[in-house]
Amino acid sequence: xxxxxxxxxxxxxxxxxxxxxxxxxxxxxxxxxxxxxxxxxxxxxxxxxxxxxxxxxxxxxxxxxxxxxxxxxxxxxxxxxxxxxxxxxxxxxxxxxxxxxxxxxxxxxxxxxxxxxxxxxxxxxxxxxxxxxxxxxxxxxxxxxxxxxxxxxxxxxxxxxxxxxxxxxxxxxxxxxxxxxxxxxxxxxxxxxxxxxxxxxxxxxxxxxxxxxxxxxxxxx
Length: 221
What we know:
Shape: globular
Structural class: mainly alpha
Distance between the termini: 49 Å
Number of domains: 2
Radius of gyration: 20 Å
Order of helices and strands: HHHHHHHHHEEHHH
Largest sheet: 2 strands, antiparallel
Strand content: under 5%
């Protein structure tokens, strides 16, 4: 694990020198994957609190590495031995006071993603649907990489206000095979896969409606 932490520190240092994530997206993704693997090794979720332990401002020496490993072990012991709350209760408690979606999703062992964050912020916190239905949806999409990929690409490339004949096909992955499809086919694919809030998600991508107007339409769906 010492080798992995040194490698992570080197990636973080290289990204800083390049000017941050916006200057090298591939390096940023590699660093994030490395962070996730290190936390997973200790049985910790991808939570900002635990990520803080493995942030390095400078390349660490041997003592610093050993200190971080000890911190990770202590955090893992506390995390794994705590009185765990049921997932439904975690979401119910989140309704009582605002909590960072990354923290809550990590507690649920759900990958932070544009769709899962949308479900948390715009469906759960706006009380558009029940806690039970939200939890079921988060668990469902978390085990469906094709769904996460398709919703992510929709968020990046789909422009609902664009006339149909000007719409750009979206690169989408189905069972490991990538193909370009019109946005309407991607959305239809997600509906058929059983994505509960795909219509609300697509609605939220438009620039033609305010957030409040989108939420009002969500409630009526």
